[in-house]
From TrEMBL:
GO terms for biological process: DNA recombination; double-strand break repair via nonhomologous end joining. SUPFAM superfamilies: SPOC domain-like. Residues 277-294 have a biased composition (Basic residues). Transmembrane segments: none annotated. Residues 250-294 are annotated as: Disordered. The gene is ku_1. This is Non-homologous end joining protein Ku. The keyword Cytoplasm does not apply.
Length: 294
C-alpha cells in the first residue's frame, strides 16, 4: 500500500494477535486550498500568537496551555504535567465485545480508517478475524490509545480488509430530545402523505457516492482558473423564488402539475451519476492544469 500508516500496532482478540496498520480513509487534500496573503505584496501571511492584553508577540518558549476557569482567569498547565496524565498506549487495538451491525447508531461515528495487516505473517490471523465478523454479520467494539487519547473504535469487515471507525464519546453527542423538543405535531391530509410516498418511490436509487458533487470546490477551482486566464468572474444569478402552497409543492415534486407524463418516470431514470465515476476532484484537475501552464 502506497500510503503511510497513521498508526501501527496489534489487533488483539483474546490470545489471537496480528500486527496491523491504520490508514486514513477520508482526506480533504484534494480540495482547493486557500491561504491568507497580503493584498499589496501578494506574500503569504504567517500566524503568530499575541498577548491579548499587551498586544506583544509571545515566542514559543513562553507559550503554555491553560484552562479558563473564569473570564480571563486561567489555570496554567505545564507540558510535563500534561504528559503525566496522558495515557500510555501499549500499541494494542483490543476487541472487547461484538454487536449486530443493525444496532450501531451512526450518530456516534467519528472518523473511518482502513485497517490492514502490517506484514505477511499477520495475514492469516487478520483473515480469521475479518471472516468471523463477516459470517456472523457483527461489528466489534475495540479500545486503543490513539494519538495520545483513549478511543473506542467500531471494527467491521470490508472487502478484503477492515474498517475501523473511531467513535464519539457519549458526552460529545448532543441530546436529540433537546434538539427536537419544540417540533410541534402536524396534522396532514392523507393526500399529502400519499404524494410524499410517491415522490420517494419515483426517486428511489442506489447509493452512488461518485455522483456527489462538491459544487463549492468546483466553483473555487473555476474561479482560480478564470483569474489565472484573465477572464471575467461574474457570479451566476440565482433563479427567482416561487411562492407555492405545501400541497402544490408536493404535486409539482411528484410530477402531477404541468407535465403529467413525468409522474410515471421510472426510478433513477433522471440520474446522471453513472458517467461520473472516476472523475477527478476539482482541486486535482486544477493542480494538473496549473502544472501544465507552468
Amino acid at each position: 500500500m502506497a500510503a503511510r500508516a497513521t498508526w501501527k500496532g496489534f489487533l488483539r482478540l483474546g490470545e489471537l494477535v496480528c500486527a496491523v496498520g491504520l490508514y486514513t480513509a477520508v482526506s480533504a487534500s484534494d480540495r482547493v486550498s486557500l491561504h491568507m496573503v497580503n493584498r499589496k505584496t501578494g506574500n503569504r501571511l504567517s500566524r503568530r500568537f499575541v498577548d491579548s492584553q499587551t498586544g506583544k508577540v509571545v515566542e514559543r518558549e513562553a507559550q503554555v496551555k491553560g484552562y479558563e476557569v473564569d473570564s480571563g482567569d486561567f489555570v496554567v498547565l505545564e507540558p510535563d504535567e500534561i504528559a503525566e496524565v496522558t495515557p500510555k498506549g501499549d500499541k494494542a487495538l483490543t476487541i472487547e465485545s461484538f454487536l449486530p451491525c443493525a444496532e450501531v447508531d451512526d450518530l456516534y461515528f467519528d472518523r473511518p480508517y482502513y485497517l490492514r495487516p502490517a506484514d505477511a505473517a499477520s495475514q492469516a490471523s487478520f483473515a480469521v478475524i475479518r471472516e468471523g465478523l463477516r459470517s456472523k454479520q457483527v461489528a466489534a467494539v475495540a479500545r486503543a490509545v490513539l494519538f495520545r487519547r483513549p478511543r473506542s473504535l467500531l471494527i467491521r469487515a470490508y472487502d478484503e480488509g477492515i474498517i475501523a471507525t473511531t467513535l464519539n464519546y457519549d458526552y460529545e453527542v448532543r441530546s436529540a430530545a433537546e434538539a427536537f423538543e419544540d417540533i410541534r405535531e402536524v396534522k396532514m391530509e392523507p393526500e399529502m402523505l400519499d404524494l410524499a410516498r410517491h415522490i420517494i418511490e419515483t426517486k428511489s436509487d442506489r447509493f452512488q457516492p461518485e455522483s456527489f458533487d462538491d459544487r463549492y470546490d468546483a466553483a473555487l477551482a473555476e474561479l482560480v482558473r478564470a483569474k489565472m486566464e484573465g477572464r471575467a468572474t461574474a457570479p451566476p444569478k440565482p433563479p427567482p423564488a416561487k411562492v407555492v402552497s405545501l400541497m402544490d409543492a408536493l404535486r409539482e415534486s411528484a410530477g402531477m402539475s404541468g407535465d403529467k407524463k413525468s409522474a410515471g418516470r421510472k426510478p433513477g431514470s433522471t440520474k446522471a451519476g453513472s458517467n461520473r465515476a472516476g472523475r477527478k476532484p476539482a482541486a486535482r484537475k486544477l493542480a494538473a492544469r496549473t502544472r501544465k501552464a507552468g
